[in-house]
């Protein structure tokens, strides 16, 4: 994904939760169903995007992704929350709810 396309994606009105992952990453596989449930629960209010760091190294570098999985929540193009590693669903929901209520 070109950086310009990624920039367009995160600059919309809706918050965007980006899951930076790799196919070979076991913790990423653990996080996948959690992110899928979040995507379904927040459908229409939050965009959820998965970015493969092996295929999108420049985007991962631009946002300082050094460990995976990394979740970054963007609001109006700016990162407002970041989590590295597997995280419980309720922690992600709390971050999303804070942004949606602001």
List the helices and strands and how they pair.
Blueprint: H1 3-10, E1 16-21, H2 26-41, E2 47-52, H3 57-62, E3 70-75, E4 78-84, H4 89-101
Parallel strand pairs: 1-2
Antiparallel strand pairs: 1-3, 3-4
How are the strands ordered across the major sheet? 2-1-3-4
Strand content: 15-25%
* Euclidean distance between termini CA atoms: 30 Å
CATH C-level class: Alpha Beta
Describe this structure in words.
It is a single chain. The chain has 102 residues and is of the alpha+beta class. The chain has one domain: Glutaredoxin. It contains 4 helices and 4 strands; from the N terminus they run H-E-H-E-H-E-E-H. It has a 4-stranded mixed beta sheet with strand order 2-1-3-4, with helices on one face. The longest helix is centred in the first third of the chain and has 16 residues, at 26-41. The protein starts with a helix and ends with a helix. The model has no long low-confidence stretch (mean pLDDT 94).
Core attributes:
102 residues, alpha+beta, Glutaredoxin, four-stranded mixed beta sheet, 4 helices, 4 strands
What would a concise description of this structure say?
The chain has 102 residues and is an alpha+beta fold. The chain is 42% helix and 25% strand. It has one domain (3-101): Glutaredoxin (3-Layer(aba) Sandwich).
């Amino acid at each position: 994904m070109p950086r310009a396309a990624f920039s367009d994606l995160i600059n919309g009105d809706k918050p965007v939760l980006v899951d930076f992952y790799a196919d070979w990453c076991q913790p990423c596989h653990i996080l996948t169903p959690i992110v899928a449930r979040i995507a379904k629960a927040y459908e229409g209010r939050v965009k959820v995007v998965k970015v493969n760091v092996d295929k999108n190294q420049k985007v991962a570098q631009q946002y300082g992704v050094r460990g995976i999985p990394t979740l970054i929540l963007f609001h109006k193009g700016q990162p407002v929350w970041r989590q590295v590693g597997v995280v419980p669903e309720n922690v992600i929901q709390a971050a999303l709810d804070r942004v949606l209520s602001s």
